[in-house]
Design goal:
Layout: H1 18-25, E1 32-34, E2 39-41, E3 49-55, E4 58-63, E5 69-75, E6 80-81, E7 94-97, E8 101-107, H2 108-117, H3 119-145, H4 148-165, E9 173-175, H5 180-187, H6 191-203, E10 207-210, E11 213-216, H7 219-226, H8 238-241
Antiparallel strand pairs: 1-8, 2-7, 3-6, 3-8, 4-5, 4-7, 9-11, 10-11
């Protein structure tokens, strides 16, 4: 049982009862601890598992033709890793531990069995995947059309929101245990440019930074400059689950 697995990603649309929560926690194999920089799964490998992230941060990345790496997602505790590759013969991305992590592997057959036995779970996952698609769409628009400071502001707001949902951040304070190079690989910026943006944000009293600790001092200004689209989660889901 994965008693310490955050379940917010599974019940963000359709709240789970205790039986469904136990079914999710029983999905995975016994947790495995990986050190920082460990590769959980490489791009091109057969996608035999998805992964439940219990603790730590994982980067999902793709290799570009010139040998550069593009980090397409920072995964946080409670995230389900590797699901995009379920529809492919070879994994689309590499999953790398950005910190020490604890994960549980879920064989695809076990995941499929829960889909078949629980339409409620399947519906929740379907909606969660659509929300993820919207988030990636917004980030693509931001990276292609906004200035560096807007990209960093959007990233900090996104991480704060996601960590708060997992109970890992409060009042705009959170740990950011990734390097400026990794942030640059995610946002399409150089590490030098990321460092310059962080200094500007500190000077403008938008954030405070002490080592890996980030404090959002002026979230409204960050939201304004980020051009981050406000997205409200649907609450009327009768079309999906019936009256």
């Amino acid at each position: 049982m994965l008693d310490k697995l955050p379940l917010h990603r599974f019940n963000e649309f359709l709240p789970m009862d205790e039986a469904r929560a136990q079914a999710v926690r029983a999905l995975g194999e016994p947790p495995i601890d990986y050190p920082r920089h460990a590769v959980l799964r490489r791009e091109g490998e057969p996608p035999r598992y998805i992964y439940l992230l219990i603790d730590g941060w994982v980067g999902a990345s793709v290799l570009l033709p010139g040998g550069e790496r593009q980090i397409v997602k920072f995964h946080l505790p409670g995230d389900v890793l590797g699901t995009p590759s379920m529809c492919l013969a070879q994994a689309a991305d590499t999953l790398t531990a950005l910190t020490a992590v604890r994960v549980s592997r879920v064989p695809l057959a076990s995941f499929g069995a829960l889909f078949r036995s629980s339409p409620h779970f399947a519906a929740s996952m379907f909606l969660s995947v659509q929300r993820e698609r919207v988030a990636l769409m917004d980030r693509l628009a931001a990276v292609g059309r906004t200035a560096a400071i807007a990209r960093v502001a959007a990233l900090l707001l996104d991480i704060d929101e996601r960590l708060r949902a997992a109970g890992l951040a409060a009042d705009g304070h959170f740990e950011l245990p990734v390097t400026q190079e990794q942030i640059g690989d995610h946002l399409g910026l150089t590490a030098v440019h990321v460092n310059r943006v962080f200094r500007q944000m500190v000077d403008d009293k938008l954030i405070a930074r002490e080592r890996q600790r980030i404090s959002l001092l002026d979230a409204p200004r960050l939201r304004s400059m980020s051009a981050r689209q406000p997205r409200s989660v649907a609450r009327d889901l009768n079309w999906l689950i019936g009256e």
